[in-house]
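So, can you check this record?

>
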Amino acid sequence: MIDPEKENKTIKLFKRKKTMTVQELSMLMDCSIPTIRKRLTQWRVYTSYNKNGRYYVMPEVPKFDKTGLWNHRDIRFSRFGTLKQTVIQLIKTSEEGLSASDVGVLVGLNPRSFMLQFRNIPEILREKIEGKYIYFSAANTEYLVQKENREKAARESLLQLPSDSEAIIIFVDIIKHPGTSIKDCVSRLRRKGIASKEKTIKSLLAYHNIYLKKTPDIH
C-alpha cells in the first residue's frame, strides 16, 4: 500500500520536474513498477512519443501548441497520444496534406524512421505528386479540400518563379557562396542590379526541392 503523504509529495515533485520515468517514480514512492503503472493510468498522464515512450507528464503540465504538440528538453508529447495517432491527426487536419518531410518537421523526428507505416492506413491516402508522396485525409470531403488547396498553392508558386535567365543567375550565386542565406543572396544580386525578391528565390528553390539555411554558417 502506498503512503498517501509520500504520494502527494511525489506528485508535487513530478509536476515541478515536468517529466519523469517509471523508475524515478518507483524510487520516490518506494513501490513496484506495476503499482506505479496503475497510478499513471489513474493520473491520466501523457506518454512521450519519442525516447521509447519512457517519459511521462501530468495532464495539467503540457502547454500544447496549436498542432497539439509539446516539447520539453527534446522529450516530445502529443495531446493525441501515440506517434501514430498524432501523425494521423496532423495529416487529417492539415490544409493541403503533408509530405513526409512536413510531418518530420512538425513532430521533430526523422520521417524515415516511422513514415513507412502510413502506406496502408484506412484514415490516410498517399499520392505521388511531382515525384514526392503527399499524405491526405481519406475522408472524401477533407481530401477534396486538401487536394484543391495544394493545387492552388502550386499554381501560385509557379506564378512567383523567376525567368529562366534570372534563375540561372540565382543558382550561380548560390553555388559560388555555399552556406549562404536567401537574404544574403538577395543583397548580392541587388548590388549587381538584379532586383530579385526573397519570396521569388524561395519559390524557385522550393520548386526544385532545394532548401537553404535561414542564416549562413559563421566560421
In short: Residues 164-207 form one domain. The longest strand covers residues 124-129.
